[in-house]
Design goal:
eight-stranded mixed sheet, alpha+beta, globular, four-stranded antiparallel sheet, about 350 residues, 10 helices
Length: about 350
């Protein structure tokens, strides 16, 4: 399998997880077989690789991602003093998070990553622009292009899931409008090489809070937890040139009452010689518009019904995200058990 030019190859003695690989071009033309594969991937895995090559829209997103990798390297070369002027907001999760500012376990072990979360609403001028680093302001055109093209991926995935869930056309996309306020963001992450004698988890095990994440990596380090097992088992994801990693978040599990899976993942040191290089990640985190209710969607017969006597709270997306941030437990992985239909879900 092809590796990324100029970077150490993914080691041959490390067995990565075998994820579904879907074709963006086929999804664009609403290929029925590919749409069925998409639904199965979201139901049974919660994560897949998306081949973006050989289409104009996919190639343009790949070009944006290439430019963003260069931008991300420059961003994290900015002095710590300057970056910390724009610290992460505990409410919105926008801004800069430094190394060791969060913990990875119940013992309080500090994490080993830094990231900058950039608001979609800021970049699109939907809200008044927040103060930020000059380098971000100077690259707003690039960031807007990347977010727009990533959101196209998200809405097409949601469109095909509408059909498979027997929801009215446009149901999911209408809850994720690009021109409305939400907590969508581009998150740029940096993981420095770890010392040989002390290599460990860099980013706490978690599921994403939102709906769909579009992720680009070039080095290993991302690990996925196996589903339906009592023992904790983690496997590396091997990045593939020309592909994005797509994973679902907790909102999609809520919308479908556990039918679609939000897969738990973490980041540790990269395998083999890749561990000696700084690792960068680029993620577009799509969440529902702020007013959208995060609860089981009605319509059709595919989404499992509520249990007898079960009631859901009416909570909007903005409050849901704030609550999930506040409630997030930095410790042991959440259990994932098989769903009644044979797939898996989080609890």
């Amino acid at each position: 399998m092809q590796d990324f030019p100029g970077l150490p190859p993914f080691p041959t003695d490390v067995e990565p997880i075998n994820l579904p690989i879907l074709d963006w071009g086929k999804l664009l033309v609403r290929d029925e077989s590919e749409s069925e594969s998409l639904f199965a991937a979201c139901r049974d895995h919660g994560i897949f690789q998306l081949d973006l090559k050989n289409t104009e829209t996919g190639s343009m997103l790949l070009e944006d991602a290439d430019r963003l990798f260069s931008f991300t390297k420059e961003l994290f070369e900015v002095s710590l003093e300057e970056k910390e002027k724009y610290k992460l907001s505990a409410k919105t999760s926008f801004g800069y998070k430094g190394v060791g500012k969060l913990v990875i376990d119940d013992e309080g072990t500090p994490d080993r990553n830094e990231y900058f979360s950039i608001s979609k609403d800021d970049i699109f001028g939907i809200t008044a622009a927040s103060a930020t680093l000059d380098i971000i302001t100077q690259n707003k055109v690039l960031l807007k292009s990347y977010m727009t093209r990533s959101h196209t991926i998200v809405t097409k995935i949601l469109d095909r899931l509408d059909a498979k869930l027997q929801l009215p056309a446009g149901t999911l996309a209408s809850l994720h409008r690009l021109d409305m306020m939400d907590r969508n963001q581009t998150r740029l992450l940096h993981f420095a090489p770890q010392p040989d004698e002390d290599r460990r988890i860099s980013l706490v095990p978690h599921t994403d809070h939102g709906s769909v994440t579009v992720l680009f990596n070039r080095l290993g380090g991302l690990q996925i937890r196996s589903v339906g097992k009592t023992a904790v088992d983690w496997s590396y994801v091997r990045p593939i040139p020309g592909h994005a990693i797509i994973n679902l978040g907790d909102v999609m599990t809520k919308f479908t009452h556990g039918l679609l899976l939000a897969r738990e993942h973490r980041v540790i040191f990269a395998p083999g010689l890749q561990a000696e290089r700084p690792r960068y990640s680029i993620a577009y985190l799509a969440r529902p518009n702020n007013h959208a209710l995060v609860k089981r969607l009605s319509g059709g017969h595919v989404i499992p019904p509520l249990d007898e006597g079960e009631k859901e709270e009416d909570i909007c997306s903005a409050d849901w995200i704030t609550k999930r941030i506040a409630d997030h437990k930095y410790g042991a992985p959440k259990p994932q058990e098989p769903h009644v239909n044979g797939s898996a879900t989080t609890s």
